Each structure stands twice: as structure tokens, then as C-alpha cells.
């Protein structure tokens, strides 16, 4: 999930992939590219740390997996492959950060548990159609103690827009490995307007 490492790893491994996995790699590359966009960190207030970048990759992976679940059995199968690529990338990241082999498995299990927890919280927020519920989940998970007023609300607005955009995107396109996200948050002024309800 580093600046250039994930893409390099993916393209190295893509030549050794099993048949049918190209779409999963393509979707994951789109997830990572979107999660890296500077606007999330400069204007959106997301902490520009390893943890902050993990949160943004997890958030966008959640959105793609949610859309794939709506595409039926084939979509769920592709979603599982995307999930596998995500955690393979995390495994490689931990190793490159110097985590020993004996500790990697435990850390991956912990990351998987936290990922599932985030999926549940974000699902609840979207399903409830309650902006405050979703913003609260994002405040806890993405921003932690560093959340500034308006940033969680702004990110919640972005997540809803992404979810709607993905829902309207052709299932055939997504199953082929093509996904399009909306533009990231642009400014804290936008966040302040969201908090004010304007």
C-alpha cells in the first residue's frame, strides 16, 4: 500500500496469476489508485500515514466488494478474488516493513478482523440511509482522534456518491475489471457546509 510498491508488486505478480484473476488485479489497482489521491489527505483531512492509507484502501475495497455482491454469484466470486489480492498485498507490505514471518500471520488476522468490522459499520451507515451514522463510522475508523470538524461528514458524502455511482455502473464493466469512482473531496469549506446542513 506504499506509494509505488503496490503497483510494482501487482505487475510483477500479474504474469504469474491464475487464469481468471486479471479482473481482480485490475479492480484492486483501481482501488489503490483512488485511495492514493492527494485530495483525501490534503483537503479531506485523512491522516497521511500507513494507517490512514490502509483505511482509504479498505474503504474503497469495501465499496467495490459491496457492488460485486449485488452482481450475483459471479460477482461474489470476483469479490473474493479482490479480497485475496488485498490481503496478499498487506502480507507483502508487512514483510517489507520488516515484520518477521512468525508475526505476519497474526497481524494479517488482526487486519482481517478490523476490515470486517469496518465493512459492518459502513454497511450499517449506508443501509440506514443516515448521514450521521455513516459519518460517525468514518470518524472512528478513518480519522480516529485526529478528525477535524466537517471532514467525516465530507467523506460520508463522498462515500454515498461513490456507492450510487457504482450501483449505476454496468455489472458487465465491473466484472471485466473496470470501475469508476467519483472525484474525491475538494476542500474543507465543502466540509463546513455539510456540517451546517447547507
In words, what does this structure look like?
By secondary structure, this protein is mainly α. The chain is 74% helix and 0% strand. The protein is built from 10 helices and no strands. Helix 6 packs antiparallel against helix 7 and helix 7 crosses helix 8. The chain is globular, with a radius of gyration of 17 Å.
Question: In summary, what is this structure?
Answer:
With 198 residues, the protein is an all-alpha fold.
Large-scale geometry = globular
Count of discrete alpha- or pi-helical segments spanning 4 or more residues:
10
Strand portion, in percent?
under 5%
SS-derived structural category: mainly alpha
Q: What share of residues is helical?
A: over 70%
Mean pLDDT: 83
SSE sequence, one letter per element: HHHHHHHHHH
Major sheet characteristics: none
Residue ranges: pLDDT <50 for 5 or more in a row? 188-198
Radius of gyration: 17 Å
Extended strand count: 0
Distance between the termini: 36 Å
Amino acid at each position: 500500500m506504499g506509494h509505488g510498491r503496490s503497483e510494482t508488486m501487482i505487475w510483477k505478480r500479474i504474469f504469474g496469476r491464475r487464469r481468471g484473476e486479471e479482473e481482480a488485479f485490475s479492480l484492486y489497482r483501481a482501488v489503490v489508485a483512488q485511495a492514493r489521491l492527494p485530495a483525501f489527505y490534503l483537503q479531506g483531512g485523512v491522516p497521511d500515514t500507513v494507517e490512514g492509507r490502509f483505511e482509504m484502501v479498505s474503504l474503497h475495497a469495501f465499496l467495490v466488494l459491496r457492488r460485486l455482491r449485488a452482481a450475483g454469484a459471479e460477482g461474489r466470486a470476483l469479490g473474493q478474488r479482490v479480497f485475496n489480492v488485498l490481503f496478499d498485498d498487506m502480507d507483502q507490505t508487512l514483510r517489507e516493513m520488516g515484520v518477521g514471518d512468525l508475526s505476519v500471520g497474526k497481524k494479517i488476522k488482526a487486519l482481517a478482523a478490523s476490515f470486517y468490522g469496518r465493512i459492518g459499520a459502513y454497511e450499517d451507515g449506508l443501509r440506514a440511509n443516515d448521514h450521521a451514522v455513516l459519518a460517525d463510522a468514518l470518524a472512528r475508523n478513518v480519522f480516529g482522534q485526529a478528525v477535524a470538524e466537517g471532514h467525516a461528514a465530507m467523506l460520508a458524502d463522498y462515500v454515498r456518491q461513490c456507492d450510487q455511482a457504482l450501483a449505476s455502473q454496468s455489472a458487465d464493466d465491473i466484472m471485466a475489471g473496470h470501475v469508476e469512482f467519483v472525484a474525491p473531496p475538494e476542500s474543507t469549506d465543502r466540509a463546513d457546509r455539510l456540517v451546517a446542513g447547507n
